[in-house]
């Protein structure tokens, strides 16, 4: 459930999409409109500088996940959590609240600056509990054959591996259920730019209501 935008408050927009659909391509286009973009993946890396979080991770998964210099041993942590769904869920329960807090701080700062809108770019937008922070959600989609081909080319992997990566995520049709705006990126970058132009027009209309 997204929040209810109040009065002249800044429009808080969530941008997501399945692997290979072109979420990042749309995000890059939106930057050209001087819209603030918060990259949740970058925030997801920055959080591991938080000493309290690192201590909580060490308590949960053992001292093998912390290097001698006090930094996170990502390789060891990955071995533990990516082979055990319960442990991955535990890690997410520790990290997602910290990411949400950092993103909220950025959103508040943009609002103080007088920005009309800001975008949270997050692959796991729906899965990580960001919805209550948002006024609207954009989902980028594409046809399944295009998605498969893009993943194979981008990740230099087999068709079987690409299908596995696609299947490990929430299906496109499920994500679309949460969207107010759906952008089809089955075509070229020029076509996506045209879609972005139309999307901006609709977002500006939403702000003016």
UniProtKB/TrEMBL annotation:
Gene Ontology CC: one annotated term: cytoplasm
Pathway connected to this protein: Cofactor biosynthesis; coenzyme A biosynthesis; CoA from (R)-pantothenate: step 5/5
GO molecular function per UniProt: ATP binding; dephospho-CoA kinase activity
InterPro entries in the cross-refs: Depp_CoAkinase, P-loop_NTPase
Compartments it resides in: Cytoplasm
CDD domains linked: DPCK
Database matches in HAMAP family: Dephospho_CoA_kinase
Protein name: Dephospho-CoA kinase
Species the sequence originates in: Peptacetobacter hiranonis (strain DSM 13275 / JCM 10541 / KCTC 15199 / TO-931)
């Amino acid at each position: 459930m997204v929040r209810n935008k109040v009065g002249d408050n800044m429009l808080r927009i969530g941008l997501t999409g399945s692997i290979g659909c072109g979420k990042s391509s749309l995000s890059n286009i939106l930057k050209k409109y001087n819209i603030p973009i918060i990259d949740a993946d970058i925030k997801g890396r920055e959080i591991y500088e938080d000493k309290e979080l690192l201590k909580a991770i060490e308590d949960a998964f053992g001292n093998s996940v912390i290097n001698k210099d006090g930094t996170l041993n990502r390789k060891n942590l990955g071995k533990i959590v990516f082979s055990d769904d319960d442990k991955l869920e535990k890690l997410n329960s520790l990290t997602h609240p910290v990411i949400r807090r950092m993103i909220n701080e950025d959103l508040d700062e943009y609002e103080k600056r007088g920005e009309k809108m800001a975008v949270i770019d997050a692959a796991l937008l729906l899965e990580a509990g960001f919805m209550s922070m948002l006024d609207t959600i954009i989902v980028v989609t594409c046809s399944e054959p295009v998605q498969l081909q893009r993943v194979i080319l981008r990740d230099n992997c087999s068709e079987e591996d690409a299908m596995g990566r696609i299947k490990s995520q929430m299906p496109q049709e499920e994500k679309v259920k949460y969207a107010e705006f759906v952008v089809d990126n089955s075509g070229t970058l020029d076509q996506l730019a045209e879609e972005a132009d139309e999307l901006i027009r609709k977002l500006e209309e939403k702000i003016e209501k």
